From TrEMBL:
Classification via InterPro entries: Cyclic-nucl_3Pdiesterase, Cyclic_Pdiesterase
Record's protein name: 2',3'-cyclic-nucleotide 3'-phosphodiesterase
PANTHER family xrefs: 2',3'-CYCLIC-NUCLEOTIDE 3'-PHOSPHODIESTERASE
Length: 197
């Protein structure tokens, strides 16, 4: 079983990000059934197999502080799992946790573009028709993506014309998720609460 550690927002912030993730380009010509699957917003901290849940919990620890996640930019990628994503500011706390978990578990880092939050997964077939770029363009054209004065970005997660801007969030949990089979069949096996300061 392939397991991943996910840094996740609170339920309230997950709902806000889902509104961004559910956006579709008005001229969407997606043909592949694998494009735009449902998944929870997350930052992949680590991926592994054949490690017990107890060891994974120990690697995170019981005193790990909640993480302050700040958005840097929205990027279009060249891979299914990085079709369009929020590049997260690489804070010292994120990198310390990343290194500690991999070192404690004795596993190789397989977290490309760490840290990031994928907004959608789009097949290579649909990417060849411009779907990944169109998704980002739809964010800009709908007024959902704006630049901050400090060079970072914010996302408008409001409903029905109301504004609700998000430039980041506090991550209160890490999930242990089985990422086997189709994306929509991934299952959360455990939730590790982080310490809110």
């Amino acid at each position: 079983m392939g397991l991943s550690l996910w840094i996740v927002p609170s339920e309230q912030d997950r709902q806000k990000l889902r509104r961004i993730m559910d956006l579709r380009p008005s001229n969407s010509q997606a043909k592949s059934e694998t494009s735009y699957p449902y998944f929870e917003p997350h930052i992949t901290l680590a991926s592994m197999s054949n490690i017990s849940l107890d060891k994974i919990r120990e690697a995170v620890g019981k005193t790990q502080l909640a993480l302050d996640i700040r958005f840097q930019s929205v990027e279009v990628g060249q891979h299914f799992f990085r079709s369009a994503y929020i590049a997260v500011i690489p804070s010292p706390e994120l990198f310390a946790l990343h290194q500690n978990v991999h070192g404690t578990l004795g596993i190789e880092s397989r977290t490309p573009s760490f840290p990031h939050i994928s907004l959608c997964y789009i097949s290579d077939e649909d990417a060849a028709n411009g779907q990944r770029l169109q998704y980002k363009q739809a964010l800009v054209e709908s007024g959902k993506l704006r630049d901050n004065s400090d060079g970072t970005v914010r996302l408008n997660c409001g409903i029905g014309g109301e504004e609700d801007w998000l430039s980041g969030f506090i991550a209160p949990e890490i999930w242990i998720t089985a990422c086997d089979g189709p994306v929509e069949e991934w299952k959360v096996h455990d939730r590790i609460p982080l310490v809110l300061s």
